[in-house]
Design brief:
single chain, 137 residues, mainly beta, Lipocalin, 1 helix, 8 strands, 61% strand, disordered N terminus
Length: 137
């Protein structure tokens, strides 16, 4: 049993260190103080996260799956804890930084964008896959 727990912990840590793509079709608005989803809306997006390249790429699609917006961000800060990964993405256009959290739950990788001032976050509901990076570990 102890070996199984160690293997699961190792697999989880390895997955958070790997580079991922998340394809989201629904975004949930979550209120942190009440711990409730206050709104959900359809929005097709992909998020490519490459920690080794320090890149975060966000693509937005319309209802016909046509790409409407795409932006590359620079990952400036990475904080790993036992059960989650926090990173900061810097926009080269606005100069603003955005906070994200990646978790793994029931074998699924979850991406959330945190808005500390509003005490809210977006939860991007979708599927994930591995991402092939430019820099190889």
């Amino acid at each position: 049993m102890k070996t199984l727990v160690c293997l699961l912990t190792f697999a989880f840590a390895l997955s958070l260190n790997s580079q991922i793509t998340i394809h989201s079709t629904i975004t949930h608005q979550f209120d942190i103080p009440t711990e409730e989803i206050t709104n959900s809306f359809d929005k097709i997006q992909t998020f490519n996260i490459s920690l080794i390249d320090s890149l975060f790429i966000h693509n937005v699609f319309d209802e016909n799956n046509q790409i409407t917006d795409s932006q590359i961000y620079h990952i400036t800060k990475i904080v790993r804890t036992n059960d989650l990964l926090n990173f900061t993405a810097l926009s080269g256009i606005s100069g603003l930084s955005y906070e994200y959290i990646v978790t793994q739950e029931d074998g699924l990788i979850n991406l959330m964008q945190v808005f500390e001032e509003d005490q809210a976050m977006y939860i991007f509901d979708g599927i994930s896959s591995n991402l092939k990076t430019f820099n190889q570990p």
